[in-house]
Amino acid sequence: MWCAVLRSVRASRVLAESKAAGTAILLRKREYQRISRLAACLYGRDSAIGSLLGVNQHLTTNEFLTPQAPGVAFNKDDQDSILKHSPDQPENPKVLKLAIIGAPNAGKSTLSNQLLGRKVFPVSCKVHTTRCKAQGILTEGDTQIILLDTPGMVNSVRAERHKLDKSFQTDPWESVKVADVVLVLVDVSDKWMRKSLHSEVLRCLSKNSHVTSILVLNKKYLMTLAKPGDWEYHSEVVTTQSPQEICNNIIREKLLEYLPQEIPYTVTQVTEFWEEGSGGQLVVKQTLYVAKENHVKLIIGPGGELISRIAKEAGRDLMNAFLCDVQLRLAVKYRKT
Asked: Where in this chain does the record put each Era-type G domain (predicted)?
């Protein structure tokens, strides 16, 4: 029922702010704070990453019930309206574009999610989970930080060996060029990489030496790096991704987590059904097409246990992203290539 409340609140905020542009949907944080309490209780301190981000671990009850970020609208039209809407500029706005780069599987998307306080980027122990650059928007007070989450940096040899899209090579470089600050992330748990930087990262930094780069940060420090400038997005925007992109990425994350070797990289995802249910919940049906017949049984698992687990865990993450109930149904089919 609380999801229906969310939808009614969104509908009630439809305002004719511009005669030329027609109506636009405005979402206010006070309303999200009220209707997002249940989700905050369900998922706990989403934005906590300990002392690294300077998050207070001793929150009061009221503070705990207030999530760090609003949910993403699962209706594409709503999300598009928010993205197109003029930013609600404060009196003295400050802005910072932060590009996060590093070797594959260094933890870039994990850090982005923790900074945002909402899971909108896929995370997996396997490399190349992030397939293209995406933006997350962190707005606090008069400061807006635009997080440029990028794929792990690879050289041309590795890209050709793993048959990676060209974006794996170009996206990180393009993000660095438009960034105010570059955050270089190193996985200290990797004994081979923790004492040095990835060669491609070093090459990128040397080619863009005019851009400030940092290795260690906390959120308070990030805020101090922002400079006077107009916001690019409305304060209710969390990510520039579409709802469908978030859904596809979250499902693919689970496939990478539970399936062996190359199988997840060969799965084609097709959304067959995406609608709002009578109770305000999001109902999604997606078919996973595989290129080999024996992969169907592998993904489904004994008695359908594995595909059920994937759907359950992906659905839980989507609830966290959209702040509403999600009914996710997955089917697996063989399709000749």
From this structure: 94-219
pLDDT tens-digit series, residues 164-213 = 566 566 777 788 888 999 888 776 666 666 666 777 778 888 888 888 88
Helix locations, the chain, DSSP H: 2-12, 29-35, 37-43, 61-64, 76-84, 108-116, 156-161, 167-178, 199-207, 219-225, 243-258, 293-300, 305-322
In this structure, the number of other CB atoms found within 10 A of the CB of residue 241 comes to: 22
Plot region of 190 (φ>0 → left; ψ -120 to 50 → alpha; else → beta): beta
In whole angstroms, how far apart are CA 108 and each of 23, 98, 101, 184, 220?
37, 12, 7, 9, 18
Is pLDDT above 80 for 154? no
103 and 199 fall within a common domain:
yes
Here the tokens at position 48 are 């906590």
Antiparallel, parallel or unpaired: β 94-102 and 143-149 = parallel
8 Å CB contact between 94 and 228? yes
Q: Hey, is 31 helix, strand or coil?
A: helix
Instruction: Report the distance separating Cα 155 and Cα 51, nearest Å.
Output: 34
How confident is the model over 273-306, as pLDDT tens digits? 999 988 889 999 999 999 889 899 999 999 999 9
Is the same domain home to 161 and 224?
Answer: yes
Segment among 92-106, 113-127, 315-329 with least mean pLDDT: 113-127
> For residue 257, is pLDDT > 80?
yes
> Containing domain of residue 260, as a range?
243-334
Q: Which residue has the higher pLDDT, 197 or 258?
A: 258
Residues 134, 218 share a domain: yes
Cβ atoms of 72 and 113 closer than 8 Å: no
